[in-house]
Every structure is written in C-alpha cells, then in structure tokens.
Amino acid sequence: MSLWNGDTIKDVSESVGVANLSEDVAKNLAMDVEYRIHQVLQEALKFMHHARRTTLGTQDISNALRVLDVEPLYGYESTRPLRFGEASLGQAQPIFYVEDDEVDFEKLINAPLPKVPRDVTFTGHWLAIEGVQPAIPQNPTPSEAARLSETTPKGASSNTTLSIASTLNPTTNETVTIKPLVKHVLSKELQLYFERISTSITDESTPDAVRNAALASLRKDPGLHQLLPYFVQFISEKTTHGLRSLFTLTQMMSLTHALLENDSFFIEPYVSSLIPPILTCLIGKHLGSSSSDPHSQTPAHYALRDLSASLMRLVCKRFGDSSHTLKPRLTRTCLKYFLDPAKPLPTHYGSIIGLAAIGGREAVRVLILPNTKLYEKVIRPEIEDEGPRKSEAEMCLSALVGVLKQLEEEEEGEGGGGGGKGKNGIAPIMPGASAEEVKSQLIGILGELVGEEVWKLRREALVKAVIEAGGTKI
Amino acid sequence: MTDSEVYFTLLRVSAAQTLRSAGITAAKPSVVDAFTDLLARYLTLLGTTTRNFAESGGRTQAELIDARMAMEHVGLLRPINIFNDPNDDDTEAVDALVEWFRGPQVADMRRVAGYAEKEGQVGKSDEWLGATKKLSEKRNTTV
C-alpha cells in the first residue's frame, strides 16, 4: 500500500518512547508520513524547477518547509559529505547510520579560515603571437592541446598541407609540428602554384623564358603571402643541399630577389631566415663543382657572389633600420671572414664586396682601408708565385680596388663634378705636394699592390679621399 | 567554495567559540552545524525585522530605532512594558542588555575569540583578526 514499512514506523516510535504500537496505527501513520513527504517534495521540486536546476538540494527542502509553515530543520546547510557507516543487526540486514564523530572545539576554532572565492572577473591574455602560442598559465599546455586537436575533425586540406611540407622538407618536419594549434589550410591552387614554380625554377631543362615568367610572377602577384614560409624554407633547403650546383644557387638567389621585390609580402619576419642562404652564396668556401676551369679569368661563381652582394645591399637598405642587430651582425661576419687568412681566397672576395654592400662608403673607410696593407701579405705571394691560385688572388685585388672606388663615388655628387673622370695622363695636382710624394703616401697607406692599382686609375678625388682616410687613421 | 559555504564556515567558527566559552569542549559536527544554522537564522530574523520596521516608517535605510524595535519584537530586549507611557523613559531592557555585554559571559567569549583585554595576553588575537582583515582586503581587491 504505502512505501513505508510498518516496521520503520515502529522503530521510530520506539526511539521516541512509545513502546508498543498496534499494526493499524502503524499503517495509518505510514500513509500519513508518505503524504507529508510527498507534499514537501512537491514544493521542493517547484523551487528546483524555478531555479532552473535539475539537482534537488537541501535549500529547496528548507524553502519548501518554510512555505508549508513547518518548523525548519536545522543543520543541513553544511556541504560536508555525509558518510554512512554500516551496522549489522546480526540478521544480515545492515542498518546504516550517519557517521558523526565528536570533534574538539579547539580544533574547530583554530582551523585555518576557508579560502575566499574570487569574484567574477575577466581579463585578456595572448592566445597566440605570430602563430606561436606562448606558454602562459591561461593557455593550454602542449599535452592538453594535443588532446584537444585529436577530437577536432581533420579536413582533407590540412592533410595535404602537411604532406607537401613534409615531402619538400624531409629533414625539417619539426617546423610543421612546432605550431600544432595553427592549422595551415592552403587552397589547392596555392599548392599547385608552389609545386609548379619550385620545379620550374630548379629544373635545368626548362627554357629560360619559362623560368623568367615564373620569377616575374613571384615578383608581381599579390595573394601569395600564405606560401611565403614555404618558399623561404625551400630556399634554405636547396641552398644547403645544392652547394655543388652553381645553377641551383643562382636560381635560389634569383628567387630570393623576386621575393624581396614583391610589394605584397610582409617579409620582415622572414629576413633572418633569408640571410643565411644569401651569406652562404656570398662567402661560401667552395661554390659550384670543382670541374670548372680554374684558369678562366672569371669563373661563374664570382658572378654569383656579386649577385649575392647586391642582394645583401638590398636587404640592408630595406631592413637595416628596423632591426638594430642586422647590420652589425652581417658586418661582423664578413669582417671575420675577410681577416681570416686561413679561409680560401674566393671567401675573401665575397667578404670584401659584402662589406662594401652592407656598409657602403663608411664601411670601406673604417673597415677595409686600414686592413688593406695587411691583406697584401696574403695575396702577394699568390700573385708573385704564379701559383694555382693566382687568378683568385687577382680577383681579390680587383675587388679591393673596386671597393675603394666607392670611397670616391660619394664625393662626385658634392661638386667634384667631373673631377673623377677622364684625368688620364694628367698628373694630379696636390697642394704643395709632388706626384712622387703622393704616390709614396698612397702606397704607404694601401700597400704596394693595391696602391699601384689605385695610382693607375688616375683619379684625383679618389687619391685625395684615400689619403685623407688613411691619414686620419695614423 | 561558493559564497554561502564560506559564510557558513566562518559563522561556524563564531558558533564554536560561543559554545566553548559556555564550557562545552566537544560536540558532534551535526550539532555544531545545527547550532550554526540557528545562529544564521536568528541573525537573518533580526535583519529582516529591522528592515520591516524601517520600511514601515517610510525609510529605505534602517536606523538605530528600527534595530531596537526589532530586538524588542524578537524578544532580545526584556522586560518589555507593553503599557508604555511615551513620556516615560523606560530603558530597563536596554540597560539589561548593556549590562550583559559588560558581564562575565561576554568577557569569556572575547577571551576565547582571542580579543585579549589584559596587556599580558598576546596570542592568536592578532593572528585571527589579521587573517580576517587580509582576507577581506584580498576579496575587495581581486579585480
């Protein structure tokens, strides 16, 4: 009939003090108990629904009792979980009771006060900077991020992106996984474009016209920005692996040039990745295959180095102001290679023209000029001995002379108009100095070999500039 | 911990101190919780009654007179002379309350709570008060 057992009622009555209760009374009481509980529960459920909850709480019951004008039940506010202990009566029917051990007040009073919860606030934090997620506490840790990304569905495009990057860079797969939360979705057209361009540039058999068209497209087309990191990676990879092939290196430099020319690229963050290939092509020890004719006057790698130097000039001109360390770093590297006599002569060639390209007139005046005399000691024995490296040494010599010419070039605009040109055969006129003295001064500054060459040029302004610069040093 | 849990826990400390000062050293936690619940309801009752009196007087801000009337209503201030002559300055009930506050029971409660009245008594008074102050500061400046 009712949910409540007559025995339960009898137990409760015994605990209150009423010893024997007849069956009927117990049954009636049970029915009444059920009705009361139903009533209370109904009211409590109303409270729960109105509070938009699905969990019935003690507060709901308290409110229900209040509404029904019943004495409230005290002491159910606490959220400490109730632990139920078991006590068996010996009839395999356990009785459960609430475990409620006595607690000492001293402990209660001296217990540490509870942590006050924070108010609802909101702040901002960086989710990702330039595609990289900083490791601040508000961002998920890499393990959590991996777990999250597993659950997101992987589209077809993201797979092909990863596979393209991995086929081109089998050794540098790390760059793809360093940024797990940035899924780079490339459209099919872009992927196709990238493949076509990269194969046509590096393939020797494609006709020049096609290659030029590819480079021209890179130079002009907008909307290629998404491919920029892939191109940069491609250049670096081909440069490091293609040191034997001049053709590859030249093509890579042309590619770099085209990328730098394109207005729509925001290339500044990639400058530091572009610099190493350029430097390699400039001051690399051994560019191109060793089968090139060593006796030809200008082997092709000098042309490559010239191209790299002009690229370097372009980069420094554009980005030298925005990055404080770019120019000093490059200058330091080139100078180091220039002053190291153990490095091969073509490296010296590259570093000389590199220094001039980076720093212009000032670099020549401050860095190259003082070292010219010392440098002569390196190239003189090569030239005089008619050794196998004579041509290289002569190239270095002509590089030095060419670079020193820069000292004079700036002055042309100042008003020395026709001063530097066409004075062949006319002895230079110095205030109060004879030609011989000037020449010996020049040789004193620059050393014999270079000094002779400069003298042969017969450029008054240049000589003047050199002597001035050399004079201030001493 | 939600807000209400924090308040309940803080109030439980006061309840335990009151019981301790009365001489009870230990009890079941459910008993302490029931006592705390009673204390909370009593304070709420005082507050709502005060508010009711204030609103009856057409005010939104409660005044001291509202609090006194609430205490009389609740039965805190005794004896109440219902045949009150308005010209009669009968402050017996309030005097009794003030006396109680000065009495030994409250003194003992203060001692348990750590409010040292004598100079020599250093101790947990500073820590407990300091800790509560720090908590409220943290609470107010957490934005």
Q: Termini separation of chain A (Å)?
A: 119 Å
By CATH, the topology of the largest domain in chain B is Histone, subunit A
Per DSSP E runs of 2 or more residues, the count of β-strands of chain B stands at: 1
Question: CATH superfamily of the largest domain in chain B, called what?
Answer: Histone, subunit A
- Helix proportion range of chain A: 55-70%
Beta content of chain B comes to: under 5%
Subcellular location (chain B): Nucleus
Main location (chain B): nucleus
Protein name (chain B): Bromodomain associated domain-containing protein
GO molecular function (chain B): protein heterodimerization activity
Provide structural commentary.
The complex is a heterodimer of chains A (474) and B (143). Chain A is mainly α and 474 residues long. Chain A has helices spanning 6-16, 23-50, 58-67, 105-110, 142-151, 156-168, 174-177, 188-202, 208-220, 228-241, 246-261, 271-283, 300-319, 326-338, 345-384, 390-414, 435-446, 448-457, 460-473; strands spanning 84-88, 94-98, 103-104. In chain A, strand 1 (84-88) and strand 2 (94-98) form a beta hairpin. Chain A has a two-stranded antiparallel sheet with strand order 1-2. Residues 154-163, 169-181, 291-297 and 411-429 of chain A have low confidence and may be disordered. Chain A contains 19 helices and 3 strands. Chain A is rod-shaped, with a radius of gyration of 43 Å. With 143 residues, chain B is an all-alpha fold. Chain B has 2 domains: 3-91, Histone, subunit A (Orthogonal Bundle), CATH 1.10.20; 103-143, no CATH class. Chain B contains 6 helices and 1 strand. The chains are: A mainly alpha (474), B mainly alpha (143). At the A-B interface, strand 3 and helix 4 of A face helix 1, strand 1, helix 2 and helix 6 of B. Chain B: This is Bromodomain associated domain-containing protein.
